[in-house]
Amino acid sequence: MASKPPAGDPVQDAPQVAPPQHAAAGLPAIGHTLKISHQQMGVRRTARTLLKVNQKDGFDCPGCAWPEGDKRHIAEFCENGAKAVAEEATLRRVTPDFFAAHPIADLATRSGYWLGQQGRITHPMYAAEGAGRYEPVSWERAFEIIAEELTALASPDEAVFYTSGRTSNEAAFLLQLFAREFGTNNLPDCSNMCHESSGSALTETIGIGKGSVSLEDLHQADLIIVAGQNPGTNHPRMLSALEKAKTAGAKIISVNPLPEAGLERFKNPQTPQGMLKGAALTDLFLQIRIGGDQALFRLLNKLILQTDGAVDEDFVREHTHGYEEFTAAAEAADWDETLAATGLERAEIERALRMVLASKRTIVCWAMGLTQHKHSVPTIREVVNFLLLRGNIGRPGAGVCPVRGHSNVQGDRTMGIFERPSAAFLDALDKEFGITSPRHHGFDVVRAIQALRDGKAKVFFAMGGNFVGATPDTEVTEAAMRRARLTVHVSTKLNRSHAVTGTRALILPTLGRTDKDVQKSGKQFVTVEDSMGLVHASRGNLPPASPHLLSEPAIVARMARAVLGEASATPWEDFEKDYATIRDRIARVVPGFQDFNARLAADPAGFALPHAPRDERRFLTRTGKANFTAAPVEYPTVPEGRLLLQTLRSHDQYNTTIYGLDDRYRGIKGGRRVVLVHPDDAREHGLADGAYVDLVSEWTDGTERRAAGFRVVHYPTARGCAAAYYPETNVLVPLDATADISNTPASKSVIVRLEQSPSA
Ligand SMILES: Nc1nc2c(c(=O)[nH]1)N[C@H]1C(S)=C(S)[C@@H](COP(=O)(O)OP(=O)(O)OC[C@H]3O[C@@H](n4cnc5c(=O)[nH]c(N)nc54)[C@H](O)[C@@H]3O)O[C@H]1N2
Ligand SMILES: Nc1nc2c(c(=O)[nH]1)N[C@H]1C(S)=C(S)[C@@H](COP(=O)(O)OP(=O)(O)OC[C@H]3O[C@@H](n4cnc5c(=O)[nH]c(N)nc54)[C@H](O)[C@@H]3O)O[C@H]1N2
Ligand SMILES: [Mo]
Fold first, then answer.
1. For residue 189, what are the β-bridge partners?
2. Pocket flag, ligand 1, residue 196 (CB < 6 Å)
3. Crossing angle, helix 552-564 and helix 139-151, to 10 degrees?
4. How would residue 308 be classed by pLDDT, with cut points 50, 70 and 90?
5. At residue 396, does pLDDT exceed 90?
6. Edge-to-edge, what's the strand order for the sheet holding 125-127?
7. Which of 189, 256, 296 to mutate to test the pocket of ligand 1 (most atoms within 8 A of CB)?
8. Rounded to the nearest 5 degrees, what angle is found at the Cα of 457, between the Cα atoms of 451 and 461?
């Protein structure tokens, strides 16, 4: 299996390389923001739109899920949030003429960058069997086609309903209700590829799959450990919180195979002093080998246990379970093995320990660097052990902080987008709507691909996202998708998934966050939940990209009426007419949302959802306590002559949406097909900086996967490790390479060999 750069792309991928930078944000960030925004939106629309991001009467930034904070700056946005807004609020349009000029076979030769650059989709489009191209279709006919295919299935479980994390609470609630009324729990979502490992680890250990800290906690912490996360690019507003914590005296340890510019130094664009000098953020940089984190935290835990008075014994006695078993496992931790697993020096770990012991309030933040490995769940459970030992959960300034990705990914899960819903949730749903939801589990992302591949799923519906672009094993996944009877994509912009269709295919264009949403009862707003469990409203203020768009709630409501017909007693029409009626139902089904509409009206800034460990040190686990766990320590072992590849984001992308070809902080310009390798490793492999290689992934079953034509960049990553951008490298990630328990694709630990490119 092999992949090459897309053939139909007029833009040349020709990376230029300069030394990486040591500071993030500052003036270059503002210049870059305005350039991209003006290209997409023009000057007036740029001003009008960017002033509304994350304001109390504005829309929620479609970028990341970082919370807003109470005192909002006039420009409460960051460079990458602004790019996400410009991408959506663009004035470019993809009309039926575009589809007439570009048959599906042509779209399939284009890069994701090119597809995204074409603009907002304006009309519902349909590709009939054998037609080879999309043609305009009426909304009515589109829903009829969906109904034809769904009602023809032998079982509701032959349908899959995917959700990406931009979907509002209201649309997500309707989608899961429709799926269950139709009869399936096949509700995979982007979370399956993202923080599922965090959810699995936290639910087992503290009884809730969400983070336990607020922004205020970050500001009060003594020590913040940022592990496996690149906030300078992916959560830029988090840097302001880290800066504030530092000013109040906090220390920061970053744990990462790469020195990331944002964590080194932050030039706060909101303050004049920040713009010039910036603040150093990281006090200790632990340049860990990929996948070494569980070993690191296990040894730190052993060292804490060995230090007199270091364990919070009252907390352990009153609130935890499994301590003896855990201490026995921790005793076995071994310096030599830890140094081998982490690639760190003994003195570095000892320094980290001193900082840990000096801190009364510790927070650990993490993202994809911890969640996308085979042993991610035990790794995150070890982080929980680490925090429990010193009572760092349910205390101000302390706790777990999994930093979410998509702006409403956490809310979608709260609304019931989950293939393994709890019985309590389904009971409440059934009671409210008089339905009988299926109780057996549905497909997650990987199982959905397997089901499509094996002919067990036949209809694929996506509420946003770019399923074939974001998922692993691109060639397997694309072949699987082509076997579907019908593929349906509710989308704002074109992406790879529109070019890889089932026998019949629909594109349903929808409103984005920035678009004004007017229904029969008047102007609507929707709600979202951020990474810290705060729920608030989001109101678009721009005229919609086209008069033919429907909102996401309207699309689900009309699909439900077409598919379920008279058999459904659910008031789908009312839901479409007035979203407040959806929120009234959410209030009765989802815990923490009572008086939903009234509370939003009382405080436009929104409200915080309850979190038992944070609020009252209550742990709703099987044991009724916070659970210590004692999994064996694992770390990847790499055969001679191979490297461990992580697939990550550049500065100019939002997942599969490519904004541009630069990765400014890492010094890479004008191209994305690069592989970052330590200079000593590169020399050992005989690879000069600038050489071109194929990346060949070797999976345990003997199969090989190849991505061709990557420029080698000598880069200060940890020894034995390499890094390249996703989604180009998804072709290398085997479908079966997933995390134990969470089933998240292990896209941060792919064993590869580098072969001189024949094309070079
Ligand atoms: N601008 C922008 N913002 C985004 C996104 C985007 O694409 N663009 N995506 C959004 C989404 S959905 C998400 S989930 C988040 C993702 O946010 P991140 O998780 O920050 O994204 P990645 O680029 O995948 O970066 C992973 C980081 O983990 C490090 N890492 C890799 N392997 C390991 C390891 O084994 N151990 C440790 N300690 N570190 C490791 C990498 O070097 C890198 O710094 O960002 C969200 N925000
Ligand atoms: N190798 C590798 N693979 C990964 C990752 C990795 O680090 N490495 N990261 C994983 C992670 S963390 C995630 S979250 C997934 C992301 O997976 P997805 O969420 O599926 O992918 P995105 O690229 O975010 O989806 C972008 C598309 O969403 C649509 N869209 C944008 N806004 C809206 C909207 O408001 N409504 C609707 N209906 N559609 C909209 C647009 O058409 C756009 O093209 O990828 C995962 N895949
Ligand atoms: Mo994500």
1. 163
2. no
3. 50
4. very high
5. yes
6. 135-136, 125-127, 504-509, 486-491, 459-463, 159-163
7. 256
8. 115
